[in-house]
Design brief:
Helix content is 45%, strand content 16%. The protein has 171 residues and is an alpha/beta fold. α6 links the parallel β4 and β5.
């Protein structure tokens, strides 16, 4: 599998505040100078594009399938699609692994205390409903790669790990 030549999907997932979007943007920024066939899709931005604002579990799964279908469409055109999304449900894992050719899954983990400390969107206050990891349970994935992202300094280290893994895939 050579994601750079053949196209494919690099799917970064994790709970809100885990750093998956920051990491995905950094990978995109690092690679866009070397490869023209790269696109970054942010889960929240895709909600706006698809005008899909349901946050209950079924709505989240439905939105994840829409993301996966768009990513697969672009990958078939030899694009390397980097996508960051929560999407922590077995239905999504199974769908993606079944339908997306050249699919590479990364789970960005972050300790609960650190997520609560970051709490950028106020999601871990307990006042907001339909939050994955709070009142919506999630399914622990079995991805290609698991990264711990508990410290700000982990971002650069994790980016290097991902880039090395991508290079190894191309060999």
């Amino acid at each position: 599998m050579n994601l750079f030549q053949d196209g494919g999907v690099l799917w970064l997932m994790g709970l809100a505040g885990s750093g998956k979007s920051t990491l995905a943007r950094k990978i995109y920024t690092e690679l866009i100078g070397q490869y023209q066939n790269i696109i970054y899709l942010d889960g929240d931005e895709l909600r706006d594009i698809f005008e899909h604002y349901g946050y209950d579990k079924d709505s989240r799964i439905d939105m994840a399938i829409k993301r996966a279908n768009l990513a697969q469409f672009l990958a078939k055109q030899k694009m390397l699609v980097i996508i960051s999304t929560i999407s922590l449900f077995k239905e999504v894992y199974l769908y993606n692994r079944t339908h997306i050719k050249n699919y590479y899954e990364i789970y960005v983990k972050c300790d609960r205390k650190e997520l609560e400390k970051r709490n950028q969107k106020g999601l871990y206050s307990g006042e907001i409903k339909d939050v994955v990891g709070m009142d919506i349970p999630y399914d622990e994935p079995e991805p290609n790669l698991i990264l711990s992202n508990n410290m700000p300094s982990d971002i650069d280290k994790n980016m290097a790990i991902i880039l090395q893994n991508l290079q190894n895939l191309g060999r």
